[in-house]
Amino acid sequence: MFSTYTDPEAYMDGSLLFSASHIISLCVTLALLLFLFLFRNKPWMKRVGRWLIIFGLAGSEIWLNYWYFSTNMWDIRYTLPFQLCSISLYLCVWMLLMKQKWVFEVVYFLGVGGALQALLTPELFYDFPHFRFLHFFIAHISIILAVFYMLWVEKFQVKFKSVWKAFGALNVIALVVFLVNRFTDGNYMFLAKKPTNASLIDFLGPYPWYILTLELVVLIIFLLLYAPFLIKEKTKSKRRVNAKL
Questions:
Q1: Which of 58, 78, 84, 241 has the fewest CB atoms within 10 Å, i.e. the most exposed one?
Q2: Separation in Å, CA 65 to CA 71, 203, 221
Q3: Dihedral sign, CA of 45, 111, 170, 220?
Q4: Which of 92, 199, 107, 105 is nearest to 139 (CA)?
């Protein structure tokens, strides 16, 4: 039976960063991405793969909220879906159901950037095999799989303007979440204070200045995520030029 103790930090002694369970989870992520890539052109992937990812996304969120309420751990300061990855999760479900390109353009940057950072430096106070550990990695891995499903299976692409769409969307989301934090006394998206565990934010200065520094870091990350598409476009252009010679 789950404890009803409401202080999450009491469940953890030390950091999960690069622990055995953390490294194994990262290996599972890479293995699932490799599986998705290798079977991306199989007809059954569109029929089965998409719904399995949707189940991972929606199921993990439903399961999480059931656990919050059944253990009396629901708290407006911590459990609303206003962390970046929670927002990305909902957008991923909509993206997979509706296959809208503009949602993919936003989620590609927000989802991969946010979920990858979360997987590398997890803000998590429960180790394997606790439910919260399993939920954390199922949800974040599903976000990444959703994005690469659209990229590899549905053949969606992003353009340079997609960088600015995603950056603009992120700032609108941040403004809304900032107001939510003021109302709830929460720390969603870490806009009120730094996370308590070790993370990349530790290198970006004190509060509130790290938020401005983070804007620049996010833009750089978005540009790096766009780089493969830029290289692909330049390669195609070069081939077209060579074909005309």
A1: 241
A2: 10, 33, 31
A3: negative
A4: 92
CA neighbours within 13 Å on the CB side: how many for 39? 14
196 falls within a domain? yes
Domain annotation covers residue 235: no
Residues 25-78 have pLDDT tens digits of 999 999 999 999 999 999 999 889 999 999 999 999 999 999 999 999 999 998
Helices assigned H by DSSP within 121-208: 131-152, 160-184
Share of the chain above pLDDT 70, in %: 91
Per-state percent for the chain, helix, strand, coil, to nearest 5: 70, 0, 30
**Residue 124 is assigned to a structural domain of this protein:** yes
Residue 62 structural domain: 20-230
Angle between helices 101-120 and 160-184 (to 10 degrees): 60
Q: For 121-173, what is each residue's pLDDT tens digit?
A: 887 778 888 888 999 999 999 999 999 999 999 999 999 999 999 999 999 99
Instruction: Evaluate whether residue 5 is within a structural domain.
Output: no
